[in-house]
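Late entry, evening session. Most of the bench is empty. Finally got around to the prediction I had been postponing all week. Sequence below, unchanged from the version circulated by S.P.
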Amino acid sequence: MSAPGSYCRPRDRWGTFAESCAELSEGPALAIADARVLRLHRRVGQALKAKGVRVLPVTAGESAKSLARVEALARAAADLPRGATVLAIGGGTVGDLATVFAHLFKRGVGRFIQVPTTALAAVDSSVGGKGAVNVRGVKNALGVFHFADEAWLCPELFSTLSEAQRREGRFEALKMAVTLDARTWAAWRAHPPAEQALIREARALKDQVVLRDPYETKGLRVVLNFGHTFGHVLETVTGFRLRHGEAVGLGMLCALDVGCALRATPREVTEEVETTIFGAGRGEARARLARALQRTSAAQVARLLAADKKSSEGAPRMVLLHGLGRWTTATVDRATWEHCLRAWKQGFQWGEGEG
């Protein structure tokens, strides 16, 4: 018998929530669920009640990702046995919180199920087993690996998403294609897939990486951090008002510029990726990046980069593109990222507006 949370290939179950819930195995079960999802989708609560699943509603958002919240959940679930099933019903922050809880509760629950309710969580955070909480403003400072036994992909739960939420999912999916598979990137550029197809294909791309490096010990899984180094900085300096997927999208612009500055990323690759990701909104994306960083000092950015778990002696180690579907990692010196920071604050790409 494997230890709770050990690596396992994801078993994706597509269908309505009620159908999947009806097939849930008997025994004690707990659902950590986004309170807003429960309000918008009444049938979720009804299906859980019919199966006798205890429901603990939580308010989604970065503030939910704390050790205090993990402790509160543990107190509320104290009478449940270690072999209980835990369901995470929500977006990325609820999934992160539930993953940490599932790993720590009585040294690991018997079964863990991810039910992503946002496009972003469906393509990214519900795949790969990572969960984390924040500490004193440092994003994902404490985390675990706890792989879900199943993921339920329920299209009706995506029906209430805003266009901004759908865009977040597309950003993450495009990130995977451009770093991992040039063919998929080209196919998506020529014929953008419908949402469900995008989710299926993006999950498969991420799973291929996770399968080869489940615990980030081989240096392969690091590719999934493309756009995240400065994306996390942007989230923090905006007080997490900038959505995670939007921050990663803007963080990809930062990674492309840093790559150009270091002569690692060809300029034509930067142009193609930026144009594909943002389309006609490319100029506004640069403006959003400038607004987010306008009151941020280089010293503040340096502190955040030093706290990042991927940093080496305080210098960020970033994923950069060599080409479409080709990537590398590089430690970025302060002079380089400060040079880029000055350009970003003015709404420029690196190298624009100089001379």
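Two things to note before I forget:
Residues 197 and 217 are 30 Å apart (CA to CA).
The chain has a mean pLDDT of 94.
Will write this up properly tomorrow.
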